[in-house]
Amino acid sequence: MLRDDLQKALKEAMLAKDTLTTSAVRMIIAGQKEKDVEARGKGQEKATDAELLSMMQGMIKQRNDSIKMFIDGNRPELADKEKAEIAVIERFLPKQMSPAETEAAVKAVIAETGAASMKDMGKVMGGLKAKYAGQMDFGKVNGLVKTLLGGN
Length: 152
Hints:
The protein is built from seven helices and no strands. By secondary structure, the protein is mostly helical. The chain folds into two domains: 2-90, Uncharacterised protein YqeY/AIM41, N-terminal domain (Hypothetical Protein Yqey, Chain: A, domain1, Orthogonal Bundle), CATH 1.10.1510; 99-148, Arc Repressor Mutant, subunit A (Orthogonal Bundle). α2 (19-41) crosses α3.
């Protein structure tokens, strides 16, 4: 589904002569192909949607880092370009979970995995990434998991 949406968006952007969207979607597709090559190395036919969503979240994180550097470097036009690319990438991500939904999901995965201490953090994070890829910021969730497992 995600792959079809990307191809359709690329075609529409090219027909509309929307260069920003065209380049952003091409960048996503290039990342997708890279993930597919990695997956074939692991014996899979292609990368899963969860892996692709995770890759796109990484792209957003990179752009947010760039925005901060561009603003610090007094280059608002480049920061605006990065913000526009983030908007294009976010079109293909599922709706982000609210803080309350995120906490409920974390608690559910902790219960499912039987996690009791910080030693189980990897199991919990793995379960969350498998179920909720693209729906939550795992950098922020990391702190919540630590708190709920008694690490903070």
